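Note to self: the last two entries modelled the partners one at a time, which told us nothing about the interface. This time every component goes in together.
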Amino acid sequence: MSTRITIDPITRIEGHLRIDVEVENYAVSNAWASCTMWRGIETILRGRDPRDAWMFTQRFCGVCTTVHAMASVRAVEDALKLPVPANAQYIRNLIVIAHALHDHIVHFYQLSALDWVDILQIPKADPAAASKLAETISPWTRNSRNELKAAQDKVKAVAASGQLGIFQNGYWGHPAMRLSPEVNLLAFTHYVQALEYQRKALQVVGMLGSKTPHIQNLQVGGVANAIDLDSQSALSMDKLEQIRILLSEVAQFIREVYLIDVCAVAAMYPEWFKIGSGVTNYMAVPDLPLDSNAVAYDLPGGVIMQGNLGGVQPFKTASDPAFREAVTEDVTHAYYQGEKPLHPWQGETEPQFTDWDGDKKYSWVKGPRYNGKPMQVGPLAQVLIGYAQGHPLTKKYADLALGQVSAIAKVNASPALMHSTLGRHAARAIRAAMLAELADKHWQLLVDNIAKGDLTVHNQPVFPSGEIEGVGTHEAPRGTLSHWIVIKGGKIKNYQAVVPSTWNASPRDESGAHGPYEASLLHTPLARPEEPLEVLRTVHSFDPCMACACHTFDPSGRQIARVKVL
Amino acid sequence: MSKKITIGGIGSVLLGDDGVGPYVVGMLEAGYRFEENVTVADLGTPGLDLVAHLSGIDALILIDSVKNGAAPGTVTLYRKEEILRHGPAPVRMDPHAPVLSESLLIADLAGESPKDILLIGITGEQYEVGTELSDAARNAAADAVIQILVELGRLGISYSQLREQPFSAWWKPLADGPLAQNCLR
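The predicted structure of the combined assembly is written out below.
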C-alpha cells in the first residue's frame, strides 16, 4: 500500500514549488514536481525597446536579479552580433562572480544547512572540544573557543526564551539528523558568520552596479561605468582596491569555511552520496568571457549524457549552435495549449489550466528539453562538465574536496559519488571556490587593461529594420539560463526566458521521462513519512528558485504548509 | 551621531499592485530630499538577501502590498511584533520565497536587527501580470508617503520637499503598442 504526501507550502506568494511523492515501505516510489503559478511575465516585453529589456527581466526574480539582466543584454548583443569591450566584460564578470558567491553562501548556510544540522543539539556541545576539532580541518581564525561559545549562547538564549524564532519549524531530533553536538555548533557558528561574508559579496555588486538588488550599470553593448582611476565619482583605483579587499575576504571564507564545512557534513552523512541522483544528463554553457568577441571563456560548458563523463560534448561558445538549435519546451504535462515541443524563438504561452492531475497536466512549468532529453543544470553539471574536460581549475577544487571528504570519512571518495544529493552541495562549494579564485584574476585583467590606456566600456547598438533573433546565455548560480529574443524593426516581437529551475523542476514530457527533481526523489528512504526531511534535503540540494513572483505580505499568518498524508 | 534609516519598497513592478512598494519609493525619490543617513531603496522581491539591508541601521520603514481582507487601497501600519506574530513559514520548499519575517528573525539572531521597524501595508486589488497599479493602490501610495513622513518626524529625521513634480515610473505600460495585459488573454 502506498501513501501520498503533498508538500505544498501555502505562502502569501502565488507561485511556488509543490512536490507530491508516493511512499511505499518507507521509500519514495513516485514523484511529481509542479509550480503553482503561471509566470508568463515575458509578455510585458513585447513591443518594447530591446535596449530596455534587461531592466524588466531583472525584475523576474528578486534573488536572481543580475543574472536575468546579464542574459538579456547578451541576447540583444547576440542578435546584433555586437561585440562588448573588454573592460565591460571584466566588470560584468566581477558582478557575476560576486553575485554568485553571495548566492552560494546564503544557499548553504541560511537555506539548506539546517536540513543537516540539528539546532537543539547545540546547547550540549563543548565549545573547547569543537574549537580543537575545527583546528584539525581548517586554518580559519574565527573558530576560537570564545567565538563558538558566543554562538552557543545565542542558541541557548533562544531556547530559554521558549520562542524558537527562526528555528521554530525545523525537524529537530529527526532520526535522520546525525551530527555530533560539536559539529552542529561549528556549522551554526559559521551560519552566523556567513551573514557577514554574503554581505561583503553584495557590497561588491553594489559598488560596480551602483545599486543592489537591481544593478543600474548595464547597457546593450557594454556597461555604463565611467572609468577614471583618479576620480571619486567614477570607477577609481580607490574603489577598485576596496573591491579587491572585499572579494579576497569572501574568498578566504569560502576556502577555509564553506568548502570545509560542506566536506565535513558530507563525510558524516556518506549514505547521501548514494541518494538523489536522478537525471544524469548534464548541461552547462561557457561563461566569464575573456575578450571582446567572447571566443575564450574561463568556465567551460558542454553536455554529458547518462552520466558518461568520457563522452562529454563541449560547447565552444556561449551561443554554440549545438545549444541554440537543440532546446525545445514540451507542454504535454504543463498547463498550456500546444501539441508538439517548440523552440523558444517560436515559443507560445497560451495557458490552459486544468486541475492537478499527475497523469495529465500538473504544472505551470514547461518541460525544457535538449535534443528531446531532460537535463540537470546547476553547480553539479558545471563541475562534472569541467572535470570531464580536464579543466584545471575545476579539477583543482574538485580533487581537493573529494580528498577532504575521503580524509574525514576515511573512505575513498571518487567522482562517481557526485551524482547525488551531497554531490550537488559539494559541487556548489567547489564552484564557489573556483569563482573566488577567478575574482582575483578578472580584477587583475580589468586593472591591467585600464593601465594600458583602454577606457572603452560601450559599443553603440544599431538595429536593422528587418527581423533578427538572438540568444543570451548565462551560467547562473542555479545553472544554465537562456533568454531568447526576436526583434523586428527595433522592437521586441517575442521573448522567452528558459530559466535553470525550469530545467530542474520540469514535469514529465511526451515520452513520460521525469524531470530532474522528480527523478532524484525516486527510491529516497524516509524514516518518518509524516516528516519528510529527506525529500527536502534532495529538493533543497538543487537550490530551487521558483518564486519569481509576488511578495505580498499576509499578516494573518496563513503561511501554513500542508504536509498532507493521503 | 544621527540615526541611520532605510526606507525600502518591496514588491514586483511586473505584477500589478504588488509594485506599489517600489512605486512609493519612486515618489519619494522624485519629490523629496533626505539627509545622507537615510537610504531610500527599491528592494524588489528579496529573498534572504534582505538581511543584508537590515544590518547596521537604527530604523527600518518598509512599504509592501498586503493581503489582509481590508478594502483595496487601505493603508495599515504594522510594527515588528505584528509582523513576527506568526513566525516563519513552517516548510520552506523554495528557499527563496518571500522572507520578511525570516529576515527579521535572522537579523535578530545576529544581533543586527534595527530597533524601530514599521511596515506600511497597502491592500492591493489585483496582482495579475502587468505594470500598472489599480486606482486604489495609486491613491494609497500618496497616503503611504504621508505615513513615511510622519514616521520620520517621530524618529526626529528631517527632509525637504522638492517642487511638486509628478512621478513617472520607468516600468509603466507602453503608450502606443500593446499593453502587457492585453497580450495575455
